[in-house]
Write a sequence for this structure.
């Protein structure tokens, strides 16, 4: 999912912290499985490589768990990782640390001579499976509420990006966590991930990733011990730009939504509906801005656009771009790989996109923005809701009444008004429809990690001390 507590301005995060110096490549120390505060090798002796997507060079080999550092690992621009992912991770930990002594039940008035109250108790062992696009941030989104509620965690980082999770394991041990509270099992979905979903001694699983895999996890949970399931899945997120909006701001915000993290976010603003009176100007400003995005080495502080995560994603994105051209959309800019740069794709904008086209229906997970025209508010709401997904949406207008009515009509778990990707640890995040179940972040996430027990006492007619 998306970055937190730091929206992106001109390709860089807004932050008052001093600019970091050029990045020194760290030595990779932690490549083993982390269980009970100890480092273990795979029982089967298996390892798998983790690759730097910017260079195609292997960083190291990681121990692979079986049925049992951010910019290098993901290819995201260093400043995004430093100011957004790391900052959001710290704020998430601090927020849930504040909840640890405030999770309590209620006392309810019931019939005479009875007292009834509730307790919130830990669920137990919580499994977590996180994606490759925000590996450190998603790690914290999962473990922070789980630990605040008193649970233990078994977490599987994505096989593409295990290094920050393993480094965090070393920090967890150094901080003095008791053995077994947090366990980190790098590995692959069909083995380590499937084991978490079906394990009889795991009481809850939280997953962030594709809708297709989310369905498999929910099925595995149902077939095993009916463990609780929280799913944060895909999105095909609409942005509605009305003619009375601040057009320059709308261009900047929707483009940050489309191209942040190379479009590799479930919140990606991939469907932009623009009122016809300002469509041409919005398109002109968008293309002009996209052509000025700085593409390059993720470890270079000036870079704001890095590579895609791997060859599979790279090929999928270009295949969808080709489908857009074939189905009749107009390619305004981009649409191709950066020459001699491996997995880099130019920021891409399509105009004249129709709702039936694949690029308007499928989650691309790449730097592709589809700009469409609309005439009426009723029309655009129907079109925006005409998808299996319902994760996020955005509305751009100066009319507060329109903003509120359209926000209410949109079928999405998060609606941003005159902004995009404004996520905070205090606010819940999750989706409608096939974008998932349950909520992460905020007080709402605590309900996903506690069992509520009702206790009823009958009072005797005489009170004794």
């Amino acid at each position: 999912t998306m970055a937190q507590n730091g929206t992106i301005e001109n390709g860089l995060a807004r932050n008052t912290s001093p600019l970091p110096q050029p990045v020194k490549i760290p030595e990779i120390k932690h490549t083993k499985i982390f269980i009970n505060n100890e480092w273990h090798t795979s029982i089967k002796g298996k390892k798998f490589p983790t690759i730097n997507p910017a260079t195609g060079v292997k960083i190291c080999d990681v121990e692979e768990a079986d049925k049992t550092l951010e910019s290098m690992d993901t290819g995201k621009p260093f400043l995004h990782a430093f100011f957004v992912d790391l900052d959001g991770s710290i704020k998430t930990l601090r927020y849930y640390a504040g909840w640890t002594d405030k999770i309590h039940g209620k006392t309810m008035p019931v019939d005479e001579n009875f007292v009834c109250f509730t307790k919130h108790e830990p669920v137990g062992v919580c499994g977590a499976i996180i994606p490759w696009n925000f590996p450190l941030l998603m790690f914290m989104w999962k473990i922070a509420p789980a630990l605040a509620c008193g649970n233990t965690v078994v977490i599987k980082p994505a096989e593409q990006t295990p290094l920050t999770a393993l480094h965090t394991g070393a920090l967890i041990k150094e901080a003095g966590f008791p053995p077994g509270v947090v366990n980190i099992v790098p590995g692959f979905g069909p083995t380590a991930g499937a084991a978490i979903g079906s394990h009889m001694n795991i009481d809850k699983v939280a997953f962030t990733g594709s809708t297709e895999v989310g369905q498999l996890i929910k099925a595995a949970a149902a077939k095993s011990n009916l463990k609780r399931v929280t799913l944060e899945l895909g999105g095909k997120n609409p942005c509605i730009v009305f003619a009375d909006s601040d057009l320059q701001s709308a261009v900047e915000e929707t483009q940050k939504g489309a191209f942040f993290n190379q479009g590799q976010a479930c919140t990606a603003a991939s469907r932009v509906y623009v009122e016809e009176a300002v469509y041409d100007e919005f398109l002109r400003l968008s293309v002009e801005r996209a052509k000025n995005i700085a593409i390059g080495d993720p470890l270079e502080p000036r870079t704001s656009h890095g590579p895609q995560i791997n060859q599979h994603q790279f090929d999928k994105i270009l295949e969808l771009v080709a489908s857009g051209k074939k189905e009749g959309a107009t390619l305004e800019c981009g649409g191709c790989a950066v020459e001699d740069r491996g997995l880099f794709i130019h920021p891409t904008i399509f105009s004249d996109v129709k709702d039936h086209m694949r690029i308007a229906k499928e989650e691309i997970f790449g730097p592709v923005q589809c700009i469409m025209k609309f005439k009426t508010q009723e029309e655009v709401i129907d079109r925006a809701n005409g998808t299996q997904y319902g994760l996020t949406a955005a509305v751009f207008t100066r009319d507060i009444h329109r903003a509120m009515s359209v926000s209410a009509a949109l079928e999405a778990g998060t609606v941003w008004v005159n902004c995009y990707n404004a996520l905070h640890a205090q606010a819940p995040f999750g989706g409608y429809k096939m974008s998932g179940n349950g909520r992460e972040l905020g007080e709402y996430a605590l309900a996903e990690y506690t069992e509520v027990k009702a206790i009823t006492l009958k009072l005797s007619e005489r009170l004794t001390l």
DSSP finds twelve helices and 22 strands in the chain. Residues 98 and 235 are 31 Å apart (CA to CA). The radius of gyration is 23 Å.
